[in-house]
Write a structure and sequence with these properties.
Length: about 1500
């Protein structure tokens, strides 16, 4: 659901007539060849069930199971593989088969397959193994035959217990994140000693025997060989056979027609009238929407359909639309058709449909509960972010939800009970409540009897505060400006030191206190007790601690900022309490200790109990899911239970090396914490520092505990007995004989000796324990606690005591367990394993660390508040509410494709807004297949190319998926817009007509439809960079993406911006290196991690600098940077101080010489003049070619043109290489995907304006130093090398101010009223010093101001001019001479002869079409005729196939006389004769 259609957020337009029109067919293809059917289906199943890959591959390559798959049709392969997978039990989860079918229709696995192929091409394409078909890489050797493989990898040649070392001749090779590995790393504690990488071609003759042998080696309890499978890139791939993609939308936006930018070269008299006439005589199906409208009484007094709707009609239109949906027997289908074709139905709907009073009342009531016109989507009560509302994102959410729901149902809950628990209002309210009281401590010294805390300024006792008001209501007027002046702090401390100091007692300076130089050996017993109780020792924070109303902070550089934030929160909290009457003057006496006296405030602090605000500090795991993945089997008998407690809400697992002294100490403290009042049960997870062995010296603790767990004896063992058996001091009972340690062991094991403990039990327990420890991020030998899924630790030895276990119990029960258990009491009173349910719910609602750090995302409590909406008339459902695994709720938009996913229940609520104008004008289609479709013979005949000259008929794998528009109104002019996932960069590749100005009435008679084919050129790789220490963005660091390993060539580069540390690359699927680009950034920083595996990705030393792009969802990186020594305060963007001594000159010379011999990949010498422009639509592309010619005619310098490719047509992309070759210039296409965090424009013209100014620092390669923007419709008369060489005096760019000397314009509008326009820089021509632009962080400043101002839709009317004008103080503008730009609207004709460039800007007096204005420039026709002759010759030679740019100037001459009667699409135009002043609208790009 790429576009979030709102029922009243769709376009309303008065259109007449119902004549059948040509269809519009849009398809989108991948930019890489289609994958082999067998591999694609196999990989798609592996996306859903990764564990099925190797066993399914083994079956599919077994000739007895699937014979000769390469000779089957794609459809037969598709059906056979799915059949084998289903019958073999690999797709048993609910909805898994439907998900695989949908993923196949989306070709979701093809980026991963292409990544395998590209990695092979980059690294192994020229190896001798390529000639073998399939081959094994064995530590530098290429193995193609089974005999050699057995000889080198046979079990008898390798000792599986051997340990690798730095000198090992068989070092473990570095693997890719998407490799297929057996045994799976998640199920093995340690990698096998050898790794065989199998480069496989399943259709090769040697595949089966090599695969079978490797699988047999790896498929053992203790394998000595790790089997890694990658694919060999097929030879002779048919590059023309591409996958047709789905999962995107297409909009046909209705274009304003008061100023038409129509290329008249392709305008033909008569258009396709004959075709239209034939279609009009055809038999049409009944339009179900019109049939519903016609059920309402006809309004005899209504105006014609061509009359624009009035404001009052717009106001009611939403209610009328919902009335129509309510009237339908199939509301989902009606809503879909109505919303996607609304402009066609708007007049009849507005003037005929009568709204029921009950429906009106229900809608009015609902609009009081939720904002009308909004769009919302919930999945099992969880809100789905807008960026994920597409098939790929939703499939990811569905997979996650299925795991969560199944983990709850595995605990005995029904699906309805599981959903009710997830969305319980009590749980939601508790988790969405204020966090002000969270983690508070009683920091008073009342527990110690006083005399510990001394106030500098005692507001209750000091005389200077006696005149202050004692009313709590003074807090309601307190300001939130809470800046702390550090100078005042220092002066106050100096006063304090003077008062407290004496000749014999010198008070330490504040600097010494902060630096930790103060001695702490004073015999202050109460202070020791106080600091111990609050965990405020210097060992935990060397610089000290601070408590703000019970909130703890480490005493560091960010203390004051943290206190300011906390003060604001607490003040707001108190104000709310005062306003609600919960705090009054009666509480005045206790207000000083208000936060200390709260029931949630803890008396004791341990630094491990209360999680910090650092991203990722709170880690919670879903215990049923965690234990299922690791094989850790736990039974109720594996716990120690407190006596006399029936309900146990908390389960604590002590994770430690049970055989180490520190581990035993933690075990001891845990067992000592069990008492009659406890509500915690305790078990153990062994996390040894070293590899365990089954030698004669068996360590007692781990063997004993594993034996007790496996024999179900733990729960029967008193804690004091186990402590005695472990050899640590336990509890004793007066009057009883104390057994020895050996006697106690025999007592607990019921007579079994240590030597007789089952080694299989032990090995199984230790393996599962170590896997759990690794999964939760606890290093071998380290200690932690796993508390209802929350990881507490790692804990240093001796830092956690029995009293801390009690504090932890109170905190966790209050914080997480209590509301969930209360909900379970209501939902499923008989449910057991409540600790597991608590962990599942808490883990689901915990945001990703990246979301918490970047967006400050809090926990995501779930709810079903949409059920509070009245729903008798304005909501409908689909699916079974009682048994569904997925509950989807939407306000407004249909998600019809989800209906193909079993176990899905959809609930749709319609809540309109009241509109006064048209919010959107478009027709819309969404292209999404629920499964692949094939021809009758398993193939489908299709043509590549929509032009007769390029028709090539081939056999494709499946039917072409396309978005089709039928029965569109003919009169309007449409602009096509692709609505694709945010990670896609697409552009048109094949189209016979101008997609920016679609006129269905002007198609050629032989064309019955308008077809266009788009390509998915690139996927977006984006990221958020941060410094390790400060977590701040390393603003200004330049990065590059390398293909072909560390010595490969750079395929893209970019710069980290200030906002969220964002950066962006574009790439095709594959494996790439990420590096800091040579320059200032590399001097200041070193990259610690590329962030390829999430927020806490491994370091480069652990996993390398490779990133892997394997999904249609693109890739988000989270790289970490560390500052180099002595660079702690360095600013990457600051200009380095020039150093002209001999040493620096020699060093510079040396570096330059050295760089000549270093491999840099492909380095292209920059042109002397670099020009960028933007052209959208064939008219502006025509202008662009003429502008290029005018530039070249006036310079002898080398020139390179940069085109923003987002808006270019296929005909221009086909033409421009030939023009570049003939006229000897270079060109390059650039693009930048609009970042999700930056408020986006929706109107195409404003999007183009934004691209001209917002992304200048990141749009071009980092080594480009200066660029000139030239409007496509300009004529250049001077050498632009002058602009390149111009000194901008430190400004990042130079503009020409708008002229003010055209006296003829004074009658066109009120010059005095719009005097400010003449101060505005004109964006038709400007020069940008990209080096200076980046040094000033001008891009960050422009984007920040844009984001703030664009919140008001009425601001930035001329975005590309108003924005730099608004920021001249922050980003100075150098004024170019007035002769650099001449425009008829603003400039005097007296200086036309001096003009260096002429812009075809709009004249509001004459409103002449651009072509007429162009012909008034003498050289323009000369250039145009030259371009026309050149294109005609190219077409004649068959070099280009588009006929759109071959007309001569005789056609151009008719542009001014062409009379077009635009359809009136708006009712807000100035009325004829109106004297209201207005600024002329720009028709510029």
């Amino acid at each position: 659901m790429g576009r979030k259609l709102q029922l009243l957020g769709i376009s309303f337009l008065a259109l007449g007539g119902r004549c059948t029109s040509p269809s519009v067919d849009i398809s989108l293809k991948s930019s890489w060849p289609a994958s082999p059917p067998l591999i694609e289906v196999l990989e798609t199943i592996a996306l859903e069930a990764p564990e099925a890959f190797f066993p399914l591959l083994d079956k599919l390559t077994d000739p007895e199971v699937l014979a000769l798959p390469e000779k089957l049709t794609p459809e037969a392969v598709h059906q056979a593989v799915l059949g084998i997978a289903t019958t073999s039990g690999y797709l048993t989860e609910p909805a898994s088969l439907a998900t695989v079918e949908l993923s196949l229709a989306l070709h979701a696995a093809t980026p991963k397959i292409e990544a395998f192929y590209n990695h092979y091409i980059d690294h192994h394409n020229n190896t001798q193994g390529t000639d073998c078909g399939s081959w094994v890489e064995w530590y530098g050797e290429v193995i193609c035959d089974i005999e050699t493989l057995v000889k080198l990898a046979g079990v008898e040649t390798i000792d599986p217990t051997s340990k690798t070392s730095s000198s090992d001749p068989f070092p473990a090779p570095r693997l890719l994140t998407f490799d297929h590995i057996h045994p799976p790393p998640a199920s093995t504690v340690k990698r096998p000693p050898r790794t065989a990488i199998f480069y496989a071609s399943p259709s090769s003759s040697n595949f089966r025997e090599l695969h079978s042998y490797l699988l047999s080696l790896a498929d053992k309890p203790l394998p000595h060989v790790e089997y890694v499978l990658r694919y060999v890139a097929p030879k002779g791939r048919n590059e023309r056979v591409r996958n047709y993609l789905s999962g995107y939308g297409v909009a046909l936006n209705l274009k304003k027609t008061d100023y038409l930018a129509i290329d008249d070269r392709n305008t033909r008299n008569g258009g396709n009238e004959e075709n239209t006439s034939k279609q009009d005589n055809a038999v049409h199906n009944v339009d179900p929407i019109l049939a519903l409208i016609e059920n309402h009484p006809e309004n005899a007094t209504a105006p014609s359909a061509k009359t624009p709707l009035t404001e009052e009609e717009y106001n009611h239109l939403g209610y009328q639309a919902i009335q129509l949906v309510a009237d339908s027997n199939n509301p989902l289908a009606t809503l879909k058709q109505l919303s996607q074709n609304f402009p066609k139905y708007a007049p009849s709907l507005a003037r005929r449909v009568v709204v029921n009073e009950s429906l009106t009342a229900e809608l009015d009531a609902n609009r009081m509960k939720v904002q009308g016109g909004g769009h919302y989507l919930w999945l099992n009560g969880g809100s789905v972010p807008d960026k994920d509302i597409n098939p790929f994102g939703l499939l990811r959410h569905l997979k996650k939800e299925r795991a969560a729901m199944l983990s709850l149902t595995s605990l005995g809950l029904t699906r309805n009970e599981a959903l009710a628990l997830l969305t319980d209002p009590v749980v939601a309210a508790f988790q969405s409540g204020s966090d002000v009281l969270d983690g508070l401590l009683d920091a008073t010294d009342r527990t110690e009897g006083g005399d510990v805390v001394v106030y500098w300024n005692d507001m209750e006792k000091d005389s200077r505060y006696q005149k202050w008001s004692t009313s709590v209501f003074t807090l309601t007027g307190a300001q939130e400006k809470t800046t702390v002046d550090w100078d005042i702090v220092e002066r106050l401390y100096a006063d304090f030191a003077q008062v407290e100091g004496s000749e014999t007692h010198q008070v330490a300076s504040l600097d010494d206190v902060l630096s930790g130089k103060v001695s702490t050996k004073a015999p202050l017993q109460k202070s020791r007790l106080y600091t111990e109780r609050l965990g405020a020792t210097l060992s935990t924070s060397p610089t000290g601690h601070a408590f703000f109303n019970g909130k703890h902070f480490n005493f560091g550089d960010d203390l004051l900022l943290s206190m300011q934030n906390e003060l604001s929160k607490q003040l707001q909290f108190l104000q709310e309490k005062i306003y609600s009457g919960k705090i009054t003057d009666e509480h005045n006496e206790t207000l000083a200790t208000y936060f200390y006296d709260q029931p949630t405030t803890s008396l004791r602090r341990n630094r491990y109990i209360f999680s910090s605000d650092a991203p990722g500090s709170l880690r919670i795991f879903n215990l049923p899911d965690l234990f299922a993945r690791t094989g850790f089997r736990v039974a109720p008998s594996a716990f120690h239970y407190p006596p006399e407690t029936t309900v146990i809400p908390l389960s604590v697992y002590v994770v430690a090396d049970l055989d180490s002294p520190d581990g035993l100490k933690l075990v001891k403290e845990a067992l000592l914490s069990i008492n009659p009042g406890s509500r915690t049960r305790i078990s153990f997870i062994h996390n040894p520092a070293d590899e365990p062995n089954d030698g004669p010296e068996r360590p007692l603790a781990s063997w004993l505990i594993s034996h007790l767990i496996k024999t179900h004896l733990v729960s029967k063992t008193p804690p004091e007995y186990l402590l005695r058996a472990l050899g640590v001091d336990g509890l004793t009972t007066d009057g009883q004989t104390i057994l020895s340690q050996d006697e106690m062991v025999r007592e607990l094991t019921e007579g079994v000796k240590k030597a007789d403990f089952n080694p299989i039990y032990y090995a199984d327990y230790v393996k599962a324990s170590r896997l759990v420890a690794r999964e939760i991020g606890v290093a071998p030998g380290k200690q932690a606690l796993l508390v209802n899924g929350r990881v507490v630790g790692p804990i240093e030895g001796g830092d956690f005591f029995a009293s801390d276990f009690a504090a932890l119990e109170n905190y966790e029960i209050r914080k997480r367990s209590e509301p969930i258990i209360a909900a379970l009491e209501t939902i499923a009173p008989l449910a057991s394993q409540r600790d597991s349910a608590t962990s599942a719910v808490a883990a689901i609602q915990l945001p990703d660390p990246s979301e918490f750090s970047l967006l400050q995302t809090a926990q995501r409590p779930r709810n079903r508040q949409y059920q509070l909406l009245d729903s008798k008339y304005t909501a409908f459902e689909a699916g079974d509410n009682s048994t569904a695994l997925f509950h989807v709720a939407v306000i407004i938009d249909p998600l019809s494709w989800l209906m193909n996913v079993p176990d899905t229940f959809i609930e749709i609520h319609l809540v309109p807004a009241r509109y006064t104008e048209m919010p959107l004008k478009s027709f819309y289609r969404y292209n999404l297949l629920s499964s692949l479709t094939f021809g009758d013979d398993g193939y489908v005949q299709m043509t590549h190319g929509v032009d007769d000259a390029t028709n090539i008929t081939t056999l494709s794998h499946e039917a072409a998926a396309q978005a089709t528009f039928e029965d569109l109104p003919i009169e309007p002019i449409y602009t096509l817009a692709m609505d694709v996932p945010s990670s896609w960069l697409v552009r048109p590749r094949e189209a016979l007509y101008d997609l920016d100005n679609i006129q269905l009435g002007s198609l050629s008679p032989e064309d019955h439809s308008l077809k266009a084919v788009f390509n998915l050129d690139y996927l977006v790789v984006e990221g958020h960079a941060r410094e390790v220490q400060s977590q701040n963005p390393p603003r200004g660091v330049q990065l590059e993406l390398l293909r072909g390993g560390n010595e490969g060539s750079a395929i893209d580069d970019t710069q980290v911006v200030a906002n969220l540390g964002y950066f962006q690359f574009k790439a095709k699927p594959g494996v790439f290196g990420l590096e800091i680009r040579r320059g200032r950034g590399r001097e200041v920083y070193q990259m610690e991690s590329v962030g390829n595996e999430g927020w806490d990705s491994p370091t480069i030393s652990e996993s390398g600098n490779e990133i892997t792009l394997t999904s249609f969802e693109g890739l988000t990186l989270y790289p970490r940077f560390a500052r180099k020594p002595n660079m702690e305060k360095a600013d990457v963007l600051a200009q380095p101080e020039p150093n002209r001594n001999f040493g620096s000159i020699f060093g510079d010379f040396t570096s330059r010489v050295t760089s000549l011999f270093k491999h840099k990949g492909h380095v292209e010498e920059q042109a002397e003049i670099n020009i960028f422009t933007v052209a959208s639509g064939l008219l502006y592309e025509r202008f662009a070619s003429i502008m290029i010619l005018s530039v070249l005619r006036n310079t002898k310098s080398t020139v390179k043109f940069w085109f923003i490719e987002n808006f270019l047509s296929p005909s221009f992309l086909e033409f421009i290489p030939h023009m570049a070759e003939k006229y000897n210039f270079k060109y390059e296409l650039v693009t930048y995907k609009w970042p999700s965090w930056l408020r986006e424009q929706t109107e195409k013209q404003r999007i183009i304006w934004a691209y001209k100014i917002l992304f200048l620092d990141v749009l071009f390669p980092m080594d480009l130093e200066k660029v000139i923007f030239v409007d496509a419709d300009q004529i250049v008369r001077a050498d632009l090398k002058e602009l390149i060489d111009l000194d901008l005096h430190g400004a990042p760019y130079g503009y020409t101010p708008m002229g003010d000397d055209n006296t003829d314009m004074e009658g066109g509008f009120n010059v005095n009223e719009f005097f400010w326009l003449f101060l505005t820089p004109v964006s038709a021509l400007y020069v940008v010093d990209l080096v200076r632009f980046r040094q000033l962080a001008a891009g960050d400043i422009l984007r920040g101001q844009y984001h703030a101002l664009s919140a008001d839709p009425n601001s930035l009317a001329n975005l590309d001019q108003d924005l730099p004008n608004n920021l001249q103080r922050e980003v100075p503008i150098f004024s170019l001479g007035e002769d650099w730009l001449w425009c008829e609207t603003w400039c005097s004709k007296d200086r036309l002869h001096r003009a260096k460039t002429i812009d075809l800007c709009q004249n509001p007096l004459t409103k002449e079409p651009k072509l007429v204005r162009a012909r008034q420039i003498p050289e323009w026709e000369e250039y145009d005729e030259e371009i026309a002759q050149f294109t005609r010759q190219l077409a004649k030679d068959g070099t280009i196939h588009s006929g759109l740019a071959t007309a001569d100037t005789n056609v151009l001459a008719n542009a001014g006389s062409a009379k077009l009667e635009p359809t009136d699409t708006s009712d807000n135009k100035p009325q004829e004769g109106s004297d209201a002043a207005s600024v002329p609208e720009r028709d510029e790009l």
